[in-house]
Design a protein that fits this description.
alpha/beta; Rossmann fold; 6-stranded mixed beta sheet; about 25% strand; globular
Length: about 575
């Protein structure tokens, strides 16, 4: 029998502080096979990925084995890991912004794939790889810096760097989270064409079902179900996998079901089945004993999706029309020198309305959102607001109008960059409240605890710092910060791209509730089914221009307001 490229044997991983992130995981990955690890944020997926690449932090303790082509790497030296990374094991990080040095060009980022092994960078190969992964004009654009690229383009550059030497094993941690559906499919097809064994970390069940050979569903540091991808997606047996399926957004105008409860804390002992407190099938036996992984499922009472079906929420209500818009723009556009990122556009949003914009990476979605959110000045056109503003800092192209604290809130695509790493999370969550007068520290911590619970993070310590959280948890902290302010306008750039299926369903209900209270929401996303489920109307953007609405997602018809057409 051929030796697996990668094999974990009863592997456990504990962080400094006692967080048991991985608890007895075993699996094998053969040459050319793609195994996807799916599950909620904090379930151990990324911890496994980092362990397999030797990128864990100091103070890590492990037991069990990590076998790469038969070689046990569980106690490998850093020198040995440096020899393997890049040449034998390629790694695609979850956060493309954090993976790139902001002071180095994209070309320098890819050149590191050669320099790290004392090789001369191959300029022609760098250009060829960027072109192969869909980067336009790679010869000139590779001289740009990370902040000049969209998140999706930067993710593709990171994938090009990880595959530079055609390694036999590629560990890809959410490699498509910043990409549109078509580009995500293309990227995964390109990864599979390399012939490498792929350990794919993802929360997108639909996507991995089309590309992975097998899926392993993780919960609280363990694998609870594993098997062929299509069987896991179409005929799940573990109650947790069934709940993840039901949390998917797929019906226009209908929000997905919410998975009740929260995952257990992993810094404390877990008695019985970790999923039992959230499971509709739990019995006394489940509370007392931990089920073994037998015949692909770790459950005493496996079932079917039909048996565990929950009633789907009703169709969401259309927003109540207001007399005056929250924001109205006429001929608004944004140019950077000779390059027009967003062509002149007429935009109006009313309170309580949710408008979605979809489109490929680099199409100008984020640029338009930042202009409407008063983060950047418009190069042309006029913006009018339904709330008091004052002139902000004078920038090239115009002056950014500023609203009071919390009136306009933004959710950025990069959750790590939007949180101060030095602040405890309670301070970030309640930052908008600090502008409304002095609020005692104890009250802000209590308010932060409530806001965190509303986004499924009730188990987090408000005194923790962003570095102690997963990327998905950091994104939910950013969402809690936006929601607690009860803003008049919320602009959200890919707010769920770093979130798992269950957390996304929870956030969609949260955003819907915020809109029902009167907040206008503009949301940019690659996920069209998500936008169709949440938004009153969905529009597309291509090459800097807004194009027609998706009529199937409309809950109300477009109309004219004060002579300015709505999106």
């Amino acid at each position: 029998m051929e030796t697996p490229v990668l094999e974990l044997e009863n592997f456990t991983l504990t962080y400094r502080g006692g967080n048991n992130a991985v608890r007895g995981v075993s699996f094998a990955l053969g040459a050319g096979e793609c195994l996807a690890l799916v599950g909620e944020s904090g379930c151990g997926k990324t911890s496994i990925a980092r362990a397999v690449t030797g990128l864990g932090p100091d103070g890590l303790s492990t037991t069990g084995k990590i076998l790469f082509k038969g070689e046990d790497l569980s106690r490998a030296s850093e020198r040995r890991w440096r020899q393997l990374r890049g040449l034998d094991i390629g790694y695609v990080a979850q956060d493309p912004f954090a993976a790139c040095d902001p002071l180095s060009t994209i070309r320098d980022h890819l050149a590191e794939s050669w320099l790290a092994h004392r090789m001369t960078p191959d300029e022609a190969e760098i250009v060829r790889r960027l072109d192969a992964f869909g980067i336009p004009e790679p010869q000139s654009r590779m001289r740009q810096y990370p902040h000049q690229w969209s998140g999706g383009m930067l993710q593709r550059a990171c994938i090009a760097a990880a595959t530079a030497h055609n390694p036999p094993l590629i560990v890809a941690d959410e490699p498509t989270s910043a990409l549109d559906a078509d580009r995500a499919d293309s990227i995964l097809r390109d990864l599979k064409r390399t012939g490498a064994a792929i350990l794919l970390i993802s929360h997108d069940l639909h996507l991995v079902a089309s590309h992975a050979d097998r899926i392993a569903v993780c919960y609280a540091g363990r694998i609870v179900e594993i098997g062929p991808a299509k069987e896991i997606v179409t005929r799940p047996r573990h109650p947790y996998t069934i709940a993840l399926r039901q949390a998917l957004a797929h019906t226009p105008g209908v929000l997905p079901s919410v998975l009740p409860g929260s995952p257990p804390r992993l810094d404390k002992p877990i008695e019985g089945c970790a999923f039992a407190p959230r499971c509709p099938r739990a019995t006394a036996e489940c509370m007392q004993k931990t089920p073994a992984l037998l015949e692909g499922v770790a459950c005493f009472h496996p079932g079917t999706e039909e048996e565990d079906a929950r009633p789907r929420p009703p169709r969401r209500e259309a927003y109540a029309k207001r007399e005056h818009p929250v924001i109205a723009a006429h001929g608004v556009g944004r140019a950077y020198g000779a390059f027009t990122a967003c062509a002149p556009t007429d935009v109006t949003l009313e309170g309580g309305e949710i408008v979605g914009i979809a489109g490929p990476s680099g199409s100008g979605k984020s640029t338009l959102l930042r202009v409407l959110g008063t983060i950047e000045p418009a190069s042309m056109g006029e913006l009018r607001f339904g709330f008091p503003t004052h002139p902000g800092k004078r920038l090239r192209g115009g002056t950014v109008q500023k609203a009071g604290p919390g009136v306009v809130m933004a959710l950025f695509q990069d959750p790590t960059g939007s949180l101060d790493p030095r602040w405890p999370i309670w301070r970030s969550v309640t930052e908008a409240l600090s502008g409304a007068g002095h609020t005692p520290r104890s009250e802000r911590i209590a308010a932060a605890r409530t806001a965190l619970a509303s986004v499924g993070l009730g188990h987090l310590d408000p005194l923790a710092r962003p570095g102690e959280l997963s990327v998905g948890e950091r994104q939910r902290v950013a969402i809690a910060r936006a929601v607690i302010a009860k803003p008049r306008l919320l602009v959200a750039d890919e707010p769920t791209s770093a979130l798992d299926t269950a957390a996304t369903a929870n956030v969609l209900h949260l955003l819907d509730g915020l809109a029902q209270s009167g907040t206008a929401i503009l949301i940019v996303s690659h996920d069209r089914p998500l936008l169709s489920a949440l938004c009153d109307r969905v529009f597309s953007m291509e090459a800097g221009r807004l194009i027609g609405a998706d009529a199937s997602s409309s809950l109300s018809e477009p109309r004219e307001i004060e002579g300015v057409s709505r999106i």
